Amino acid sequence: MTVTISRLYDSYADAERAVARLESAGVAHSDISIVANNSDNWFGGDRKDRDRDGVDDRAESAGKGAGIGAGLGGAAGLLAGLGLLAIPGLGPVVAAGWLASTAVGAAAGAATGGIVGALTEAGISKEDADAYAEGVRRGGTLVSARVADADRARLDGLLNESAVNLRDRTAGWQKSGWQSFDPAAPPYGADEIRRERELYRNL
């Protein structure tokens, strides 16, 4: 039986390390997904060599076929397939893998929004799916993996390092009036993202 495990990270670097740990543990690239907020355009500008091989990733993608999943299974793993997307309620994101593909496909018809619909379809509770989506909206990065149920505890442990405590974070949002993810809400802008990240930087 396959289950989906997910974690939210305040920094893309922490999420990147989580993906690397999953890949090192033998989880197939095709079973891992990453969705990172890009409202502050961190993926633009000088950051065009995410796999750090000295070659502009856009040129590599053009040769391999650009888009979600480009580069999956290659030497650089999942992160070689990063691409820019727009997902309802999240705004611009940098993403790769199955969850992002499902979210984009679900966006047109899912009343709950593309990312929430994709997560609940993968077996994540609606409550947690709302929180993960809101976390990305507020500047975070979501890592999800489809794994064998027998491996869940071991792989959960790999994802826990540097992950956001979802219950605590959600409780904080609720004190400010947040109830659930709203795909119709305007995405956070760069200044809002910076302020949100400042709140948790030293916790």
Which terms summarize this structure?
203 residues, alpha+beta, 5 strands, globular
Q: How would you describe the overall organization of this protein?
A:
The protein is of the alpha+beta class and 203 residues long. It has one domain. 40% of the residues lie in helices and 17% in strands. The protein is built from eight helices and five strands; from the N terminus they run βαβαββαααβααα. About 15% of the residues have low confidence. A five-stranded antiparallel beta sheet has the order 1-5-2-4-3, with helices on both faces. The termini are far apart.
Which secondary structure elements does this structure contain, and how are they paired or packed?
Elements: E1 2-9, H1 12-24, E2 32-37, H2 57-64, E3 83-87, E4 91-97, H3 98-107, H4 114-121, H5 126-137, E5 141-148, H6 152-160, H7 166-175, H8 190-201
Antiparallel strand pairs: 1-5, 2-4, 2-5, 3-4
Helix pairs in contact: 1-6, 3-4, 4-5
Mean pLDDT: 82
Number of strands: 5
* Biggest sheet features: 5 strands, antiparallel
Q: Pick out the low-confidence regions.
A: 49-55, 58-75, 107-112
